[in-house]
Amino acid sequence: MKTAAFLTILLSICTTPLFAQVQRNPILEVYTGTWCAFCPDKESYIETILANYPDTIVVEVHDGDVMQTPEGHGIAFGFNPSFPQASIDHFKFAAEDSVTVSRSDWLDRVGDRVSTTSPVAVNLSRVLWNPGTREMTVRVTARFASAVSGNLRFNLYVVEDNVTGDEDYDQTNNYNNSAGHPYFGAGNPIAGYVHRNVVREIAGGPWGTSNVIPDEVGAGQSFSHEYTYTLPADYDETQVKLVGVVQRYNGNIEQREILNAVEAPLLVSKVDGLIGKNSNRLKGNNIYNTNGAGQKHRAATDRRKSVFVFSVENDGFENGDLTTRTRRRVRGMKVLYRQIGVGNVTAQLTRGLVQPDIAPGSRALFKAIIKRKTKDRIRQNLFFQATSERDTDRVVAKVLFR
């Protein structure tokens, strides 16, 4: 059940399963500012990149305006870009004069990075969000698929989308008189301009958090680091995404490559499974795991049938689709599952019953009726697994017919 004061979001958000190498999710880091008359032109280039390489992570570092951050300014000062240029994974391409790349070449350079694999999978393995204090705690985890050496660092970008405001947020527009341009006739400046993917915080500083990952890493090793950040009251938490990063550091600024990254929204739907003798005696509230620990019901009886209930709830802050499934056959037992208010859903549960667009705090309640097929002593564990878009919870019924 959702608690108003505190929410734990356990995410399984990985770049890819672990093999010899893993998929790379490149970061397109765009350098921009409200004062930059050519910056509105970046949007069409970004749209093209996302259409061709949808796993690209877009972040926009503002410099010289009200959205500037100290960390973003440090990156911009280090790379010294023209605006709007971008870096792709802070990587220095042989075909480029510097780390920063002109927008006409963004698509090709992102394609170059996508065509290569990464030695590390990055995961946001734990996210805590307290809506009362607006404090988030985010654990970034790295699992290395191959050996890597060097000064390796974690980082976390906090990014807010769809940012707008007063005249300080209005965007200078060189294309107001350029017929055919998307911003032709939009004004100069563009009042009410909506800024996308705005970097609000880089929790590890411009170049990452040191002294967590050793200089020599072997294949199969994992490391984690937690960041804590309080989201200002005027930032919209529903528009915030988190970007976890593993990056290199070197005294040569052209050798500070981002090895891999992962992104996820701060707020997601979250599934919570509960189980018990009846709806007033459910176990597993705010316990999230896939082994049933702390959310098991023991149903032992001498009678012909055993009855218990289980529920699936959305503990998150966003609507989401929840899917519940269980085993198709149970040896020595006949199973019947009824969803309260719906009816017999036995067949649907064995295939995976999808409940679309479940609102935060809402739940589906099920009754399980288990009948014995024989007079022999029978013991079975029944698993009920519920999943949301990015997490899984499992409850267990330990059924014994004596």
What does this 3D model show about the protein?
By secondary structure, the protein is mainly β. The chain has two domains: 7-265, Sandwich (Immunoglobulin-like); 271-401, Immunoglobulins (Immunoglobulin-like). The chain contains four helices and 24 strands. It has helices at residues 42-52, 70-79, 106-114, 346-351, and strands spanning 7-9, 27-32, 57-62, 86-88, 120-130, 135-144, 148-149, 151-160, 198-202, 216-217, 222-230, 240-249, 258-265, 271-276, 282-283, 296-301, 305-314, 320-326, 333-339, 343-344, 353-358, 363-372, 378-387, 392-401. Strands 15-14-17-22-19-20 form a six-stranded antiparallel beta sheet. The protein has a five-stranded mixed beta sheet with strand order 16-24-23-18-21. Mean pLDDT is 91; it is low at 1-19.
Instruction: Give the N-to-C terminal Cα separation.
Output: 34 Å
Let me know the number of strands: 24
Shape: elongated
Order of helices and strands: EEHEHEHEEEEEEEEEEEEEEEEHEEEE
* Proportion of residues in helical segments: under 10%
What name does the CATH topology of the largest domain carry?
Immunoglobulin-like
**Discrete helix count:** 4
> CATH superfamily assignment of the largest domain?
Immunoglobulins
CATH-level-2 architecture of the largest domain = Sandwich
**Domains, number:** 2
Spatially, the strands of the biggest sheet line up as 15-14-17-22-19-20
